[in-house]
Amino acid sequence: MNMDDESQAVDDVRGRKQFAGRKRAALLATLLIGLFAIGKWSGFAEGLTLEGVREQVLAAGPWGALVLVILFVVGLLIQVPGMIFVVACFLVYDPLRGASLAFGSSILALSVSFFVVRRIGGQPLREIKYRWARKIFSNLEERPLLTVALLRLVFLLSPVVNYALALSGIRYRDYIF
User: Fold this and answer.
1) pLDDT value at position 99?
2) With contact defined as beta carbons under 8 Å apart, do 85 and 71 qualify?
């Protein structure tokens, strides 16, 4: 094999990786846009307001906590801000039960969001080429816990931040901690 053949083989592999990455990104975008659209067009997302979630949980009676967890998981996937569900926990339940439910359901909703987005989209932000973006993500690689903690303080349970973190190279442990 001469140098030109080796160079061509490397280019072929690189091209296939780029195509696979674009294919995964398109699939993820299609899924997320589809979920968002279904949520909007079906009216489901309109019911995921603070008052709407509270009413659904109360109407479910003894199954209310399970309904809240399911709404939280689905809501985060269709890009409803997670704080709606956290506040609903405190509006419906006493402080101890509300805090426990908010914490547990947050962990579950964040985990499902992470694994769905990571599984479909991979980790394309890990290999981003733009210098300014690499600088931003370098903090995530160097100090993942501090960076995620600061992102959570500023953006709370923002679905967009969750998706970006899942598409980065961050480990699940650092993402969820």
Assistant:
1) 97
2) yes
Block residue for tokens 């399911």: 70
By the 8 A CB rule, do 87 and 152 touch? no
Locate 160 and state its tokens: 């967009």
- Among the listed residues 32, 62, 46, the one whose alpha carbon sits nearest the alpha carbon of residue 164: 32
In which element (H, E) is residue 121 found? helix 95-121
pLDDT tens digit string along 64-112?
Answer: 999 999 999 999 988 889 999 999 999 999 999 999 999 999 999 999 9
Q: Which tokens in the block code for residue 14? A: 């690189």
pLDDT recorded at residue 65: 97
What are the percentages of helix, strand and coil residues in the chain, rounded to 5? Answer: 85, 0, 15
Helices (H) and strands (E) in the chain, counts: 9, 0
Is residue 57 within 8 Å of 98, Cβ to Cβ?
no
